[in-house]
Batch of 2 targets.
Target 1
Amino acid sequence: MSAATAVATGQPRRSVPRAWHLIERNLFVYRRTWTIIVSGFFEPLFYLVGIGFGLGRLVGDVTGPAGQPIPYAVFIAPALLATGAMNGAVAEATFNFFFKLNFNRTFQSILATPLSVRDVAVGEIAWALIRGGLYAIGFMMVIAVLGLVRSPWAVLAVPAALLLGFATGAVGMAATSFMRSPTDFDLINIIVLPMFLFSATFYPIETYPEAIRGIVAFTPLYQGVALIRGLTVGVIGPEMLIHVVYLLAMGFIGLWVTSRRLDRILLK
Amino acid sequence: MSAPFDEPGNATRQSVLVRPVPPSALAAAGRVFEHRAYQYRRAFRGSLVTSFVNPTLFLLAMGLGLGSYVNARSPDAFHGVTYLQFLAPGLLAGAAMQVAIFESTFPVMIGLVWRRLFHAMYATPIGPRAVAVGTLAWIAFRLTLVTTVFMFVSTLFGAVVSPLGLLGIPAAVLTGLAFAGGMGAFMATRRTPEAFNAIFRWVITPLFLFSGTFFPVDSLPAAIQPIAWLSPLWHGVELARGAMLGTVLDDPPRALVHVAVLVGLVGIGGSLFVRNVHRKLAA
Amino acid sequence: MPTDAPSPPLIRARGLTKRFGSFTAVDAIDFDVAPGEAFGFLGPNGAGKTSTMRMIGCTSPASGGTLTVLDMDPATRGPEIRGHLGVVPQQDTLDEELTVRENLVIYGRYFGLSRAECGRRADELLEFAQLTERRDSRVEPLSGGMKRRLTIARALINEPDVMLLDEPTTGLDPQARHLLWDRLYRLKQRGVTLVLTTHYMDEAEQLCDRLVIMDKARIVAEGSPRQLIEQYSTREVAELRFPVGVQETLDGQLAGLADRIEHLPDRLLLYANDGEAVAVAVHDRGLRPETVLVRRSTLEDVFLRLTGRTLVE
């Protein structure tokens, strides 16, 4: 059965519990590599300490979401949360997904069971989100202790990070389903690295000339960073809804393309 | 059917007459290098683009973008140079380290475990030493390419203050090699690359961030500043920075200590690499 | 070297031993390989064949005994010896990032050949390995049989005195195996000395002039396939398959029918010079096996006789 008919016949509700099997499988595999998971939590911390505090001493205050000056570490902590969520989801959805799809034949063997293609896609993305969510919770706790959170709205930063992970992961996975060889990942890097560096992550968007701001504001990472920074700094406004809708739409389009592609690849 | 097989016995007869001379030790390592060059030919263009694009992006974002804040706030932090000029050598040495780590991880896994290419080499007159030395020579070449392009981009950004800056290239190559030997030696003992991620996150990332790459070590808490001496990357960054900012000759003994530490690491790492490849191949 | 004297062995082993820690992989074996012959090590997995091959190939030091290859000592002149060997390892070690032809050229370079010479030989060998059409394609998408032929072509790039083939056809489908055997047979015809290991008795019978049977690190028999069969088995075998459960109840009822009877889990093997006669005699005694197959003895039977086990389990 194809994902399209699954949607048409109202099957997706069953899809979630079934996708759980795939999550279990991933958990099982990762049990042996838990140190890597733990280290994934430390990585943004290293950046926070190095860039936020180390370099931050030389940067001083920068302009916050509402134009008010905030310490550099307060400015960059939500950006690191966002980039961590994006990088984790993209790595899982592109590199790992590609190897499962093309080398491991993991999916082919899973499809010999009652799981459907849609279950596979949902399960993979859910798995990426679970990992990302754990990292996000850990990171939020640390920055709260360090006094880098300025508002109770910050509790919503974790779901916001997940939303960003969902959007970028789903699109990354859709892109991966078109890839033929690992060298195609250069393309992903060509998109991800500039986004990482230029999406108002390391310095305020006001640094750019007006014309460039419009382009930067269009990137998903900027949307995610703006959303999360607003929450942790406590500048709440209606434009946040735009960020949320943008990311949701991006995620569902990615998911839709992925499940169509998987149908064609796996069920031929 | 063509030449060597025309008549029965021709193959053995010929081989008695036309004996290939086994390559000398140096030539043997050269053949391993040549093999890598063949592999690289296809990836060359893409890798050259990456070598240009990555430093350009980093220097734009961190050096100019973030640098505008650093320069405004802390104009005296870098002894009269801009943040971009301070940062470029740090990024250069850091990039050399990362390239070296990658080049001494997956190719070693491919050589010893995945495709067993090193085993194939060892079935010929090539010995384990030539395999290891040739691999390191290739890494040195790759590092030279990457750092030369990096230096070119840095010059365009005005990050190279002194003609001595050219010495930044050998400094960065040396920094990379200081990591390559040890990493190669370690990966030669592994059956899977699982440990790679852990090493990258626990060792490489902290080194990258705290070795004076993005900010001077003296802005770290005084208690942990001496730890920088343990970081090979710090020695590399200091050396490259001294070259690019033209200060390397201000304190020659200090520069020599950096060189000595890095050369020592290349020697230790390289000989461990040779030893471990030998153990793996000639079991 | 005077041509009228019998040629000295190309490979000579006496008491050759290989230990890994406390485990003995090869236990004091003796053998000689003469120039131009096809010599086989037949035995099940784990018998010590690969360890022996690696010692001959000078990539694994012997733990005891003496070994000379091409009149040289592997311990001191390994690189020189390896320059005269062509090695086909058990697993392909091709560079899948390179093209078919590049694999040959690069390998030739390891032997100290000039680039021009490598190119010339590569083109000839591609012809020989029937890979000319694929010369510029990458290795990765090739079939298993093609990769194997490429590995063999690669091992010939230095025009070796001896080819070492470790399980050359393991994992290939029957068609690919026969194609490979044909190529190896041609090499043999051209006077290339072949040393191979296998756990397929048909492969040993097809290719080997002489072979040793290895089991548990030791050589248990030596000779040509024909000699071994004559010495350790009868001319024919009658294979009887009974309904499930019946075989165990036959004790005594078959006595005297054959020179020797082997009980395998799924069938009985009755060894005799006239297998048809045995089959008739079985029928005459009122026994009704489900199937009866009369065939000639093979090396499999020799191995069964010598070790009590089958080669491929």
Target 2
Amino acid sequence: MRYLPHTEADRRAMLDAIGAADVDALFVDVPAAARLAQPLDLPRSQGEMEVERAFTRMAGKNLSAGCAPFFIGAGLYRHHIPAAVDQLLLRGEFLTAYTPYQPEVAQGTLQVLFEFQSQVALLTGMEAANASMYDGATATAEAAAMACRVTKRRRVILSGSLHPHFRSTTETALEYTEMSAELLDPDPLGFEDLFGRLGEDVACVMVQNPGFFGHVRDLRPLAAACHAVGALLVVAVGDPASLGLIESPGAMGADIVVAEGQSLGAGMNFGGPGLGLFATRDKFVRQMPGRLAGRTVDVDGRRGFVLTLSTREQHIRREKATSNICTNSGLCALAFSIHLTLLGETGLGRLAELNHAQAVRLETKLRRVKGVKPIADSYFNEFAVHLGDDVDAAAVVETLAGRGILGGVPASRFYPTYPELKPVLILAATETNTEADMDALVAALGEIL
Amino acid sequence: MADTTTLSGNRGLAIEEPLIFELGHPGRLGVDLPEPPPVDEDRLKGCRRQAPVGLPDLSEPQVVRHYTRLSQKNYGIDTGFYPLGSCTMKHNPRLAEKVARLPGLADLHPFQPQSTVQGALEVIDSLAGWLKSLTGMPAVAMTPAAGAHGEWCGLMAIRACHEDHGQGHRRRVLVPESAHGTNPASAAMCGFTVDSIPAKDNGRVDLDALRAKLGDDVACLMLTNPNTCGLFEREILEIAEAVHAAGAFFYCDGANYNAIVGRVRIADLGIDAMHINLHKTFATPHGGGGPGAGPTVLSSALAPYAPLPFVVHGDKGLTLVEHAADSGAKPFGRVKGYHGQFGVFIRALAYIISMGADGLRLASSDAVLNANYLLAGLKDVLSPSFEGPCMHECLFDDRFLKDTGVSTLDFAKALIDEGYHPMTMYFPLVVHGALLMEPTESESRETLDQYIAVVRGLAERAKAGAAESFKAAPRFTPRRRLDETLAARTPVLRWKPEAAE
Amino acid sequence: MSEMRFTKDHEWIRVDGSVGTVGISDYAQHALGDVVFVDLPEAGRVVAKGGEAAVVESVKAASEVYSPVSGTIVEGNAALVEHPALVNESPEDGAWFFKLTLSDPAEVETLMDRGAYDAYLQTLD
């Protein structure tokens, strides 16, 4: 077995040193009735070639994004990931390190986290960011709980603009707590009234910008209204690349910003592992969940980094911790950070402009297809369209897939109980799409509809 | 002594590295992208960004060098022996990295039509199948993102089940004092209160004390097994029986499942729910703090409450159930976005099918063998907290350092200078100045022998009165001991332009 | 001003008229190590004897500070927020945590005096 160094002679010699007759003697504390005398009746070990063959076979059953005109987003966007990102991730000193609890032998990870926190804070327009959460959905749930701690209130309002998974994850997280989640209906038209729901008992209002159906909103009036009643404004971001072009939530008055960061650096990977971004204002830092890297000096006075403000965390505060999170998304944070460093200010701006231009180009082409009606009045790189009253967008997507086109996500996949969403299709365009991809989609839609 | 200063501040391969913000130069690019075409209409509703983000501009060679240098300031399993108790730092097979990068698996979107991702669903289903067979449990919730998340998932299923059976008043969770901090934190997030139960002198749960704490307000017991002292709970069957007789469930923290996989089935221990840290037991990389994955196996009583989504076998192949109405069950909700830590699933499955039933059993056996070998090699110079045999890790306390002026921390830092990652320190809390060592099955006998020799030498040095040299350790690392008090009193959590500081 | 009285949780109180001043003992600050943060109660908050009133944190530990007596908070010591190290430097004087008006002055009599507290410390470790 290639991963196990011992020979039988090693094992025998070691058992002799221990003074045990055999390995079974070391398992003497296991109740006899529960001990398995031999390996379970399951497949036996295999070499690299066999294992690789098994995965190649499973991979072959999928239609991967690179093999099809691809227009799916809905919270996870297909961006080109520079080759250097993955090469650097594979460095064993990053890949095979533990959480940096021993700072003298983890300055690499710690400096990365400090740089990552700085990048996230800059991007979101906030003062401080943590070292990551599991994903955007769990970060949203954590933000709701944090807003309740900060305001000492219990009512959380979730906009219909939020990603449906962010909504349901938050609703689940609050289920058996003192906090309550109020979910507004999905909002494809961007008409919902959040102002009317505000009150002195509201801990926070949670919105997404750009919204799940595409809308870009100026959140300043909502922020002001929230603050006037002592509530916090939590803003979720679907695609961090949008922040290269759109005003940051911080500049619009957000108190907590969360995002799904997976689209930069980590790649799609069928949706996981994700990367939860989490940023807030300095005055709320001690109510934050998750790890924080901070700057300090060593005994020789040289700049270095450590994990800090740990008394918020479960390993010290136990049931009074701000969250139970321990392992987070370290390697995905590294990927995000490398990607963003390669982009820089200039590259991020260009990437964002390009994404927006691609979406405008796609929307313009789609307008020419009979029956297709764009819904959103504003968008970044993704928008919803209406395919006609009697059209089932899910069936259209299936037909497109049959033709080798991955043409967006039907809104009914998330909201099957809302008949008015049945004809709604959500489409994204990024820098990875070619003109030919768009024409293929447009032609196919023209034939199907 | 020779002069060790240099003009650059570097020392050969130990190279100082600035922050990216100190390296940038406006206009440089690390990525070539086409010039964006002009856009006619304003689709941004006047929300165009008004000020620059403030990111530095670097070229690709600078970026590659920056992260390469930073990596060289880290210790990983690839670097050397990492006996970090409770954390299971075992070898991460590179085959897993290779197959996880197959475009047919990596370049998939979670919301593609299910007909186009049958292979991906097969990965999830195959891994679920292995986890169920290995544990003997009928169901598994695949989506939790890490161990703590799995704990919470299991407790949520327990709470939902109690509520469904008119037992919603059961709000007390029993947790041993030696538990991971995540246990009480997860319980609190389900609206439970935590009641701690004491251990006996042999490091195991005091069954009589447990029985006395049980009552009809108890939702469940949370117990790590093998426990955080590296010991198997000998009375686990009696514990399970008592818990069930009281109408409560038995949650097992599966952080130490790697000690027994293939040798014991969880179902045979009377456990109702247990998370499995794929990044521990099934060798996926820790990545400097994640990502992990925490699939949670469930008994038949808890299975109906498993969260969405999950994979089932349908008429058109594998189907991902995303809504309660389609589930035929009573899912308690959703714990995260999308369908679980898919990239971690691929790696864990690659490891599992590489090892097979025989290899997995041998790995557990070797892990336990190695820990007992360390215990045997060190028990006369350190102070073992409990009698052996131990399971996959061995626990010592700081009695051997009494009156030496050397603390557990100092001892661990000295180990860094010797080229080893320290053991886990000051956990579990039930012994004084804990040193918890977990060698894992990845280490050869020679590695263990060398480590034992070094630890013995350090112990002798400490007892011989070399406290000063321990206090000064580590001396050969990129940074020496860091001022954590300064970091916490005056938090600097991000870079700011100099004028702003 | 009365003499200092102590609790088994290592808080002290000194009473002047109807107002008590509360802090943590030298033993407590020594056990905690370098104090990096304190969280103080707001004025007007009602606290019970033995109830959680403040939090004191070092790098690796967080401890509740319990009120030795019942009463209503008058003020927290703003100097500690700015300069938590004061808890280590002057635990039983400048680094008081909060002042409160006592609702039941007789409660003070149930607390240990300096001699009894020192004897109690002898029994610990």
